From TrEMBL:
InterPro entries: Cyt_P450, Cyt_P450_CS, Cyt_P450_E_grp-I, Cyt_P450_sf. This is Cytochrome P450. The lineage of its organism: Eukaryota, Viridiplantae, Streptophyta, Embryophyta, Tracheophyta. Its cofactor is heme. Keywords: Heme, Iron, Membrane, Metal-binding, Monooxygenase, Oxidoreductase, Transmembrane, Transmembrane helix. Belongs to the cytochrome P450 family. Pfam families: p450 (PF00067). The gene is LOC115954036. Heme binds at C451. GO terms for molecular function: heme binding; iron ion binding; monooxygenase activity; oxidoreductase activity, acting on paired donors, with incorporation or reduction of molecular oxygen. The chain crosses the membrane at residues 6-22. Signal peptide: none annotated.
Amino acid sequence: MEQLALGLVIALVLWIASIVLIRERRHRRLEEIGQLPPGPKCWPVVGNIFQLGWSPHESFTKLAREHGPIMTFWLGSMSTVVISSDEVAREMFKNHDVVLAGRKIYEAMKGDYGNEGSLIMAQYGPHWRMLRRLCTTEFFVARRLEAMRGVRGRCIDHMVLFMEEASASGTKAIDVGRFFFLMGFNLIGNLMFSKDLLDHKSERGAKFFYHAGKVTEYAGKPNLADYLPILRWFDPQGLRRKTQFHVESSFEIAGVFVKERMEGMECGITEEKRNKDYLDVLLEFHGDGVEEPSSFSARTINVIVFEMFTAGTDTTTSTLEWAMAELFHNPETLKKVQAELRSTIDPDKKLQENDIENLPYLKAVIKETLRLHPPLPFLVPHMAMDSCKMLGYNIPKETQILVNVWAIGRDPKTWDEPLVFKPERFMEPNMMDYRGHHFEFIPFGSGRRMCPAMPLASRVLPLALGTLLHSFDWVLADGLKPEEMDMTERMGITLKKAVPLKAIPIPYQRDRVHK
Ligand code: HEM
C-alpha cells in the first residue's frame, strides 16, 4: 500500500515537472521568436487561471489598466491575448482580420459537432466562406427579411398574449426574460421550419428547447480540460460528455422536423401557403458554384439549424432583458421612451416595423443597452491561424484572441459618464452605430466574422421592446423601488442578468391617459 502511494506521489511529481519543463521551453521559444504582449506574472501549470475570477470581463478590464490594452494571459497552457481598447481593436480588424479569423474550439464542443457543417466554430476557409455566403445571400438578406416581416410581428404578438395570460390581467409578476426567450425561440423556429416550437402543445418543441438550453449552459461553463491538456482524457467536469448528449438529443428532434418536410415534399403533400423558410433554402441548396459541397448532408442541416437557435436566442433575450432592467432602473428614461411611442403610434394600433424609423429614442435605448451590456462581452473567441506581428508584438499561432467589447463600451476615454445609462448620447448627430466601423462600439463584432444576423437583430430588438412598452405599463414586482434593483451580471455563454427581472405588465388603456 505504502509502495503504491509512493509510486503515485513520484508519478505526480514527474508529471508536474514535465509540464513545467514543457512550458518553460515553450516560453523560451516564444521569447526567441519575438516579444509577446505584456501581461500579469503567471504560475507554472495553472498560468493566470486564479486571476480570472467569476466575472472574467471585469477581471480583464482591471488587469488591462495595469498591463495595457493588448495583454497576454495564460489559461493553463492556453495562451490568450486580450484586447481592451478601440485602437487595438481597429488594428486587429483593419490589418489582421484574416489571420485572426480562426476559432478556438473548446473541449465541450469537440467531437462530431464543430466539424461538419458548423458556421460559428468553422475555421476561416472555404467551408466557412460557403456557409457565410448562404447567410448573407439567403438568410439575412433584405429580400428574405422583408418577406418574413409578418413572422416577426406574429411571434411578438404571441409574446404579448402569453404575458397577458401569465400575469392574469395585470396582477401577477412575470419573469420578463423567460418571455423574451420564448419569443426568440419561436422566431428562430419560424424562420427555420415555419413552426411555433413552443405553443403549449408541442412536446417535441419543449424537448428541443430543454436540450438546446442545456447545451448553452454547459458550453458557457469554464472547463479545466481546456486549460490543462492532461485533463482532456478525463473530462473531469463531465462537460464534454453532457454537452455531446444534449447536442445529439437536439439533433434527433431537429432531424424529425427535417425528415417530415422531406417526406412531405416527396409525397407531394402541400402545406398551407407559407413563405420560403430556411429549411427550404437548405434542402434546395445545390452548391453555390464556388465551393464544395453541392448539397448538404442531414448532419450539416441539423448543425446549421441548431446553431441558429443557440446563436440567436440567448443574445436576443439577454439584450432585451437588460434593456427593460435599465429602463426600470432609470424611470425618467422609461417615461421618455413611452412618451415617444405613445405620441407617435396611436394607442389602439400595434407597433409596426415601419414605425421604428420614427422612433429615434427607442433605437437609442437599444444601442445604449448594447454598449453597457453586450451579450457576448468577448465576441466569440477568435484564434490566430498563423503567427503574426501586431503593434510590434508577436502573436503566436493558435493564440486565443478575446476582444473585450464590454471594456471598450465603458472606456472613459471614449464615453462621457460611461457607467450611466444615457440613451441621449446616441441621439447626437453623426453618432456611431454598431455596423462594425466604429471600433468604440462593436457589440456585433467587426470584419469577416462579424455577426451575420445583425440586420435581423436590428429589426427584432426595437420591435419587441417597443411593443412591450407601448402595450403595457409596468410595475416592479414586490413593490421594489428602482434604486433597490439588483443589476449584477452573471457570465455564462452570454452575459446575463444574475437576478431575473420580475415585473407586472398592466395593459395600457387609452382612457386612463385622457382622464
Ligand atoms: C442581440 C443580438 C445579437 C448580438 C449582439 C450578436 C452578436 C454576435 C457576435 C459578437 C458574434 C461574434 C463575432 C466575432 O466572432 O467577431 C456573433 C456571431 C454570430 N451570430 Fe450573432 N448576435 C446577435 C444575434 C444573432 C441572431 C439572432 C443570430 C441568428 C439567427 C445570430 C447568428 C450568429 C452566427 C451564425 C454567428 C457566427 C458567425 C461566424 O462565425 O462567422 N446572431 N454574433
